[in-house]
Amino acid sequence: MGIFKKLKEYYWPNKHLFFWSLFMLLITLLITVAYPIILQQTIDRVIKGEQYDLAWKLAGIFMGLMIIKGIATYIGQYTGDMFGIRSVYELRNALYSKLQRLPFSYYDNAKTGDLMSRLTADVEGFRFFLSFGFVELFRLVFLVSVSLCVMFYYSVSLTFVSMAAMPLLVIAVLRFDKLVHPAFRDIRKSFGKLNTNVQENISGIHTVKSLSRESFQINKFNNSNGDYKDRYLFTTEIWAKYFPVMEFLGNISVVFLFGYGGFLVMDGQLSVGRLVAFYSLLGYIIFPIMNLGFTVNLFSQSKASGERLLEVLEAPEPIQSKVDAVDGSNMKGHVVFENVTLQYRKEDQLALDDVNLTVEAGKRVGLIGATGSGKTSLTQLLTRFYEPTIGTVKVDGIAVDEYSLTSLRSNIGFVLQESFLFSSSIKANISYGRPDATMEEIIDAAKRANAHEFIMELPDTYDTMLGERGLGLSGGQKQRIAIARALCQNPAILVLDDATSAVDMKTELHIQQALEEVMKGRTTFIIAHRISSVKHADELIVFEHGKIVQRGTHNQLINQQGLYKRIYEIQYKDQLENIYA
Ligand SMILES: Nc1ncnc2c1ncn2[C@@H]1O[C@H](COP(=O)(O)OP(=O)(O)OP(=O)(O)O)[C@@H](O)[C@H]1O
């Protein structure tokens, strides 16, 4: 029950609905137990006792009870369902906002498809139990105990005899639960993998198609699908094995009942009406206990789902704003990295190794070096996407972890190699970082990003809806929208991470012009592989294996023996070859 206790805050606020549904259930159950008593009265008093005038009365009572039961069932079902639906509404919201707060490091290991299945299938699994499972458990406990009381009242010895096989039935049900719970957990896990597979395939459809790997993907999916199917079959097998055993044990009880009960009737110790009522009452005990398998199924599924939901809800959030966080709205953009070392995981090499760097507000710094040398990592420390293992990063003399996260991040703009565009309008994409931007500001940003012209040629101009990830636009167009977005945000610090590497030379020229506009008056970090993209920077920082190995202006660095000159010569050689080719 630990899982249900931990998730209590989501369903307990709706407890009134739960209690209403229980109350209604109580009424229906009382009426259910009254049926066999009416039957007994009909047989013993009306038929055998020949009190025919009682028949009308009993029929009237029966009808009245049925109407009440119908109304109670309706209200009970409605409130029970409502309890589940409202609770998981809260839960889904909590999960979603948790996903917004989780750090980048969480997403490094998480799989999108798996997270999606937690937010959908697992939430549903949990709801199902809230709506039906609790109520089923209550039904079981109530029906068994009240039926037992009536049975004891009718005949103590017959109750004991017909209950003789019951412990075996309970043992079978418990064993079933023990096997079926891990099986359901595996099903959920397997479903998460299946989702991941589909999601990755759809996201990477370009790569799949361009490398003609469709059949590989189909096989991969087939494996996950097969695994999912096998796990389901496994639980079906458990169910198929245990269900006949449970039914057999239930039937044995009926045999005991009629064997010993028949003897009591013949001996005159029990009336026929009571024997018939006994049969119905025994059913009220056997069927819920056998149904316990189904309830246990529900319970196991929702427990497995609850576990997976808790894994997300309880994931640590190491990167948060402090209570007395500084508001960084008016940042100037003076950046200092002090003895910064970064190691992503304990087993990894150092991504940054004792980096010291000061960048004056409004200056442009070019970061250059081989892939994996630490350029991106450095800039990600600015926004606290990751925290340095050792050392401090300061903006305007204040450590970045002192700022409120929102104000820090809204003052640092990123234009990445491939910017993400949402499947909404161009207007909404540009103003994404500043939803209160006016239309004039949006258009101004687009103009300065060299994007206005092509936007105006689109059918619905700024209201044009984009496909997922900006589908329907060229790489250069997407990039200019991303630049407009950064401009609209008006950040003090800007990071251009390989912003022009995904486009051709002509488009690069367009984008470079746009970037010139963006960089004005902002501290800018330009990460680039092409020297041409960074050579006009105020200072160039050359990285190798997470360390700064050279720094200076382009002219200074090409006159020094070192990595920068080597990169320059390689790129320069390429250009010469291109010219004479
Ligand atoms: N999220 C991460 N988790 C673990 N290791 C990472 C992560 N991001 C980067 N690294 C590692 O840190 C090192 C530095 O990577 P980084 O991305 O900063 O290099 P880079 O110079 O920007 O490379 P590129 O030019 O290819 O973008 C690399 O060894 C990389 O594998």
Which ligands accompany this protein? adenosine-5'-triphosphate
**How many strands, which pairing sense, and closed or not: the largest β-sheet?**
6 strands, mixed
Gyration radius, in Å:
35 Å
Number of helices: 21
CATH topology tier name of the largest domain: ABC transporter transmembrane region fold
Spans of at least 5 consecutive residues whose pLDDT stays below 50 are none
Secondary structure layout:
Elements: H1 2-6, H2 8-11, H3 15-48, H4 53-101, H5 104-109, H6 112-154, H7 156-162, H8 166-203, H9 205-210, H10 214-266, H11 272-313, E1 335-342, E2 352-359, E3 364-369, H12 375-382, E4 390-395, E5 398-399, H13 405-410, E6 412-415, H14 426-430, H15 439-448, H16 452-457, H17 475-489, E7 493-497, H18 505-519, E8 523-527, H19 531-534, E9 539-544, E10 547-552, H20 554-558, H21 563-580
Parallel strand pairs: 3-8, 3-9, 6-7, 7-8
Antiparallel strand pairs: 1-2, 1-4, 4-5, 9-10
Helix pairs in contact: 3-4, 3-6, 3-11, 4-6, 6-7, 6-8, 6-11, 7-10, 8-10, 8-11, 10-11, 15-17, 17-18
Adenosine-5'-triphosphate binds next to helix 12.
Architecture overview:
The protein has 21 helices and ten strands. The protein has 581 residues and is α/β, with parallel strands linked by helices. The strands form two sheets. A six-stranded mixed β-sheet has the order 6-7-8-3-9-10, sandwiched between helices. Strands 2-1-4-5 form a four-stranded antiparallel β-sheet, with helices on one face. Adenosine-5'-triphosphate is lined by residues 108, 344, 348, 351, 369, 371-377. One of its GO terms (molecular function) is ABC-type oligopeptide transporter activity. Keywords: ATP-binding, Cell membrane, Membrane, Nucleotide-binding, Transmembrane, Transmembrane helix, Transport. The chain crosses the membrane at residues 17-38, 58-76, 126-146, 152-174, 248-266, 278-299.
